[in-house]
Amino acid sequence: MAQTLVNFRLDEETKKEMEQACQDMGMNMTTAFTIFAKKVARERRIPFEISVSVPNAETRAVLQEVEDMRNGKIPITTQSLESFLEEMSE
Known about the structure:
This protein is mainly α. It folds into 2 domains: 12-43, no CATH class; 57-89. The chain is 60% helix and 0% strand. It is elongated and about 65 Å long.
């Protein structure tokens, strides 16, 4: 089968860590990425869980306050906006 070149960027520290992990497993990065690509192609999915972190309580409170302002539950006045922005900058 013909080979093709694939280029992408990683931050230097991640690259070094991956190179070391691959070396510890007796392979190079090309082999690791080939294994990954073949598994994705075969299974039509990312072979591990991908998730987003859940916002912490402070972030949820700010998001709720913004939503309340949008829905008219909190009147939007110059004072309330200044207060909100002041809280955000702390």
